[in-house]
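Hi there. Long-time user, first ticket. I'm pasting a complex I've been working with (about 1023 residues overall). I'd like to know whether the download I got is complete or cut off, because the file seemed smaller than I expected. Thanks.
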Amino acid sequence: MSENALLVWMSAKAAGSWAQFRAAVEELRVGCGADDGADDDDVEERSFGLAVYQLERLNLQRLGHAEFFAPSMTTDWRVAPPTLAFTTHAAGVRGVLAGARSTVLLERIRAAGGTPEIVAAPDSPAVIRFVAEDETALRHVALRAGLNVQADAARAILSSLPNVAESSVRRPAEMPFGTGWKIDRFATRELRWRAATREDALMASAGLFRFSLRHQRHVLYCTAGRAFQVPVQVGKSLVLSRARRRRLMTYDSETSRLTLPAICRPPFLIERALIACSGLLPSYETRAAGGLLHYQDVPLPVAQLAAELLKQDLR
Amino acid sequence: MAAEWLGAARRVLLVLLRELVDGVRERVERKVRRAPEPRRHEEGEGSAATGGTTATTTTGPSPPDGTGANCGGEGATAGEVHADDGAESRDAGAARTEGGPNTSGSGEVAPSPDAAHAAPPVPEETSSGELPEEQATSATPTAAHAPASLDGQPEPANPNPTNATSATSRDDGSEAEPPVGGDENSASISPPVPDTRASAEEGPGSTNAHAKANGSPHASPPDDPPPSALPIPPPGVSSPAIAALDGDPLVDPHAERRPRKFRPAKQLPPIPRTQSTRSTGPREANRRAREQAFPIDVRVLFERGGFLRVSLLARRDCHVPPEISASGVDLVSLNDDWYEDVLPPDLGTLLERGIEWSARVNGKVVRWSLAGREVYVLARHNRLNGFINAPRLVLQEQHVVLCSASRLDGVERCLVAAGCSDVKKIDASLGTPAGWVALTNIVPTTPVPQPNDGDILDVLCPRADVEIVLEGGIRIDRSSWLHGFPPAIRLRGDAASAGAVHIDGKEATCDEAGHFTADGWDERGEHTVWCHGMLCSYQIGDGAEEWEPWDAYVWSLGEGDPGETRRPGICGMLVRPPPAAPPGARSITVPATNLILIGAVPGAIEFCSGRRDLRASTCAVFPPFDPVWALPSDLRRCDNRAARILLLRREPPATDAQAGRVVDWYEAILAASRKGLRIEPGDADAWSLWGLYKEVARARRRRRRRRP
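Hi, the file is complete. Here it is re-exported in full:
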């Protein structure tokens, strides 16, 4: 219930500051460990040390409920408009409700004839989704309830994103200098961070380096003596592609499940498209050599398009 | 002649000397005028040995000979001045003891003056028991305690980005991205600075000089020399006292302070305040503000498997940077009022000994302080998860008690006396700091008179008082809750003796969970709750119900905006047309092979372009109309066997209307027809519909050819 309350609060406020969001997470007891009775198996994210409010923020972004620190915003977060995102599956069309949520809105949906399926999910607000044979019925409900409609949401989002090798996704940056910086390099073979030096970064032909000092952290893509600021997940995909490690994504046609190593989690906008197919966050599977992320109900064309953007080959 | 010269020289010398003396005296008097009003003799004398507040670390080096009397007097007068401060804090402490609403943030509470006179003087800063959050959890002042961060006011660009960067990297790859931050140190600082400078300025004899100069009726301590005996240093010799008077602090204000010990606040009636015993001027408030430190709270969080985590939460306000390093401890903002949890390795020792952190910000010292003690009482907090340290046990409320192993027996006896049964103990094997024991499942049911002996176990004596509490629900403003998610109204403390509760003038009923309700209590509007002489108000209102889309990300994977105008924008699950798209454009996806879109109105045609960087089977396009057909992109060269005419919507052609590029429209339809391409889906209705479009296309072409 806490995550639902958080989304309702965010919808009521519409936008706000990071401090307000964190205060709400605290006040609404979101993500309380022993209090909410969540399953002990669903602990992998909390056990890895991320603060609760960061987890909540990331999940809300992935699910398309709100945007945080987007370049165009004047506030730190802003809730997305309520949208019914369609995805066509073999069994029909599924519509996932994303964005703002209020009791008034849910009453409008019911009054419009919508009978959604409500799925409780850990660490996220309840998933509200519709299933129909074709889009027409869902469009009708959305129109009467005053919802935005996004047809073929997954492919539309993916088609609107640059690939990870695009030069526009990275910005020239200065490499941090001075003592005290802890430097790590993302090892493409082992898929983990290893200690490195500034000289390694300067000499790297294509490497992803992380510079940490107290509460500062910079992730830089270093190539031929130049450094570029890049989102960490984008950087990982880029160096994996450059290192020709391109067979990390697997697709199961029978279950329509897309799997990739957890450390190679896609950039959140690509992930949002994958999540739009089911409305559910990926499930995490613990493995000795690092966990796996499973995205459910992903049609093959969507998986292929996501692989294209990540410069990966789909197995 | 020589005698005349000598006389003149003597006169000049005397004038110079007199000017020097006047200058020194003037400076002394100026400093004295800035000093607080002198106290009554008995107060100062009684607490002279106290040493006053924390600002009394300013006993400087002994002045040179000639000022020995003031040296002795210095201690006395300094003590007197600081005893005034002690009296101040004692008064304030008495007020806090009574639970008055005017507690300040530092918790520097001292015993009442009566106690001070009756008993040996106690050290400075006796307790931080009456913490402001005790008032914050009370419903009585509706606005005073509510967090500013939930007041609906968007705050300036929050320079709080690096909480994400401090996240631990984990193998699921979800390192939180550092959001774009602002200037980290843009906030100005209101420093709680120890007023060593003021103390230094109030040097030997200063108070008396002021008193004498102003004809104050307050008698000076007998040990103080009269102002006329103020030593006049010879020219060229600077006295440390005068150097102090010049404002140079004799002690580095940034020097590490020793942690203080906690003393429970005593339950004594407040003493009436007179003008002479309390200065309410802004200078006094500023001086007190400078001396106060931010409190450090203790938090207990229960984790899975029965483990618990004990951490420290340092307070902050808007004048302190969101990220700061204090005494080697990195503090990162949690919200407007607290920094994130800190888990020092030697937490057990720190809890008992106390903590003093300091940092210098913009040249001023900021302090954080936790009084050490052997017993901590923690209770639920309405703004923080887990259990937060509280002044004492409260009846009928759930608590956790942290105590050192050496006090466990006494603690358990006190809990039994307070009516706590079925108390559970958690030791270091489950997360409690070494040498400490956590006791949980504590719900006191019996008020216990406080012995007032200053022992730490006094905090385990719950009082027989009550307060109105609003909790739960979804709060959207300081005292406003969202309609449909009202607060739960209940009483904290000795609810049985509280009497009736009235909501909006109507007597409320109490359910099994202890929540009070009355007719209309959760309807939109203003509401008041009254009980036992206490009044509390709250509002129920609506939140936003309109959410406009915007271009959150344009051609971006989450980083900065590249400034593209020809690319679509993403907002949540919505894909919005590019800014450069024509009005009315809407998003659809089509196969990358069929990028010629045909609408129902003749002339509604859009030639879309695909992405060359992707081997994608589909493409997001943004026509300014609702397309009916999607034709192959290259009609001339497409393979007849593979290419298809795709039907997107079943809508008949508009025969009367016309828009845009009519020639392109009918030429494309007729070219596709001439190629003999198949239609998908290939049902009879689709073919029939295509036939209609062909007829309209032919008619348009004939009409055009007939034109002269």
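A couple of notes from our side: Residues 2-13 of chain A form the longest helix (12 residues). Chain A has a mean pLDDT of 88.
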